[in-house]
Design goal:
This protein is mostly beta strands. The chain has a single domain (4-130), classed as Hypothetical protein, similar to alpha- acetolactate decarboxylase, domain 2 (60s Ribosomal Protein L30, Chain: A). It contains one helix and seven strands; from the N terminus they run βαββββββ. The strands form two sheets. Strands 1, 2, 3, 4 and 5 form a five-stranded antiparallel sheet that branches. Strands 6-7 form a two-stranded antiparallel sheet. β3 and β4 form a beta hairpin. The protein is flat.
Length: 131
Amino acid sequence: MQHHFFVLRRGQEVVKETLAFCVQKNISAAYFTAIGAVSSAEISYYDIQKREYLSRSFGDVEIDAITGNIAVMDGKLVLHAHGNFSDREMKTVGGHLKSAVVSGTCEVFLVPLKESLVRKFDEDTGLNLIK
């Protein structure tokens, strides 16, 4: 099984850089995990009844775990990930990862898939789901 390990440095944005890595390596389907620390993170919760994301931002937190996948939607690479983060009091928060800026390091383990992952808008849920 082919796999990649790469490290993001201080100031880099996790979502943007992970997508850029996939573009550079010509990867259109993958799953990944990451750990590290960020100076800011925006995560959200999807309220299925209202069909909207509720977002919150956090500063200076550890990445306990980020897990997600890379797929294609409308011809563009998209990243879908969820993350758990903890603060200095070791309180944790988690949700859908919108963005995160690295403060110390972010170590990413990424595994390309042979299958194609394609997302399409789903009318029933209001989400972009893998079809």
